[in-house]
Amino acid sequence: MLRAIDENLWVAEQPFRYFGLGIGTRMTVVRLASDELGIISPIQVSEALVGELNALGKVSHIIAPNLYHYKFAAEFKATYPGATFWATAGLGAKRPELPIDRAICHRQGFANAPALSPWPGLECLFFDGFKTLAPSGPDPLEEWVFFHSASRTLILTDTAFCFDESSPWLTQLVTKIGGGYKQLGPSLLERVATTEKAKVRDSAEQVLAWDFERVIVAHGRVVDRNGKAEFKRGYGKFLGCSL
After folding, report:
1. Which of 154-179 are b and which e, b meaning 16 or more Cβ less than 10 Å from the residue's Cβ?
2. pLDDT tens for residues 112-131?
3. Average model confidence (pLDDT) across the chain
4. Which band of pLDDT confidence, cut at 50, 70 and 90, is reported for residue 12?
5. Phi-psi category of residue 96: left, alpha or beta, with phi > 0 → left and psi -120 to 50 → alpha
6. Bridge-partner residues for 62, per DSSP?
7. How many CB atoms neighbour CB 42 within 10 A?
8. H-helix or E-strand containing 155?
9. Domain-by-domain residue ranges, the chain?
10. Considering the domain 3-108+116-237 in this protein, what is its CATH number?
């Protein structure tokens, strides 16, 4: 089930449907500089998956990176009770029953400060700017993105998608029309609903300050080459400017 992407970096995938579309979902596993394992956007626990993870090392961090990718985090926490369950700050209010140990809160100065990251070798950034209806409204995504410097890999969840011919035909059709087919960029939902493009641009520029080649997304294909150029092109098209 686990697939090696690079040294100390793996992914695992499972089927997932959203509004009737087969988009799949992907979990990322990082062996941190501390030799512990960090799980980003966990998928469903299985005996086979647990066996593979245990063979790699100690699962110490379980990360729900936004307000949507938490479905299997509690199950992972029950399987690894000694691990710290991290979640984006607003998830506790959205789902108070979740056994969250630590909130990742950009309002406390955590964002944009890799030295403060609790995950050695894994930098993080709050991707600000996604708003719905009104600029004063809540962030519907509240997503953190990650950079694994050792493998030059950017790890995203829902800030960008990239589908191709391996996706179901209906998913291909919808993304050809709405965006995200054979190009890395935000979904139609983000593009239509976002009102704070200046903040999105600032976040995108901070992501581009990282030296990445590969991009792992939760939905669609892994972009193995030229990931930085593809991210820059996709967000530049969305924002209507060069980055």
Report:
1. bbbbbbbbbbeeebeeebbebbeeeb
2. 444 367 899 999 999 988 76
3. 86
4. very high
5. alpha
6. 39, 85
7. 28
8. strand 153-155
9. 3-108+116-237
10. 3.60.15.10
Q: What pLDDT score was predicted for residue 145? A: 94
Output the six-digit token pair for 104.
């990742």
- The single-letter DSSP state of residue 116 is G
Whether 107 has a pLDDT exceeding 50, the answer reads no
Give the separation between CA 71 and CA 42, rounded to whole angstroms.
8
Q: Is 34 exposed, middle or buried (0-12, 13-18, 19+ CB in 10 A)?
A: middle
Residue-wise over 195-230: b if at least 16 C-beta within 10 A, else e?
Answer: bbbebbbebbebbbebebebbbbbbbbbbeeebbeb
Check residues 179 and 155 and name the one with the higher pLDDT.
155
Among 137, 68, 145, residue whose Cα is nearest residue 106: 145
- The answer to whether the predicted template modeling score (pTM) of the entire model surpasses 0.85 is yes
Higher-pLDDT residue of 49, 160 = 49
* Whole-angstrom distance, CA of residue 19 vs CA of residue 96: 25
The amino acid that residue 82 corresponds to is G
| Tokens 């700017």 found at | 129
Which two structure tokens, joined as six digits, stand for 136?
């004063």
Closest by alpha carbon to 194, among 243, 146, 118, 127?
127
